[in-house]
User: What shape does this take?
Amino acid sequence: MPRHGIVVIDMLNDFIGETAALRCPGGDDIIAPLQKLFAWVRERNARGLDDIQLIHIQEAHRKNDADFRVRPVHAIAGTWGSDFIPELYPEGEEYRIPKRRHSAFQHTDLDLYLKEESLDTVVVTGVWTNVCVRSTAADALANAYKVITLSDCVASKTEEMHQHGLVDLSIFTKVMSLDEYIAAWEKGEDPWLGGGDAENKVE
Assistant: This one.
């Protein structure tokens, strides 16, 4: 069976909720699905299974970050805005990775961590579907990982942005629902099988 790293992207105070500095309205809708996912993974881990790991990505900018040339100031390292929302707070030894760019791979140790833990499949969740999620998924593929997108565990500012992001992601990742993902594991199947856009495959 494969080994999966579930990358939870930017479920932080400055993205989620009415007072967020760079609010992602759709992010409120994925809290419950992600709580279900977290509970399922943690229950497996409690039984001694380590083939699925939660990896929490935390946007944490410097005060004069170049990112603020194109968007409002948000998620400054060490502030409340950069912290995880209480509903999805990391537990125990779940790995946390700060980032300053859209992709969780850019200038971080995500690739190193995945290799150290022998994780061969990256499962993207979080916000925004068409920005940080898509960028992370693209870099995962570029680094030779299999990639899965959980469609009901990612969100964007608008439904249109979300759907456009999923269309792009379907070209190079396996897009599936959380329930489909869990069901595949429970049946002993590799959830990634059949991933990508069939029109772009050479038979």
Q: What stands out?
A: The mean pLDDT is 94. Residues 97 and 109 are 7 Å apart (CA to CA). The first helix runs from residue 31 to 46. The first strand starts at residue 4 and ends at 9.
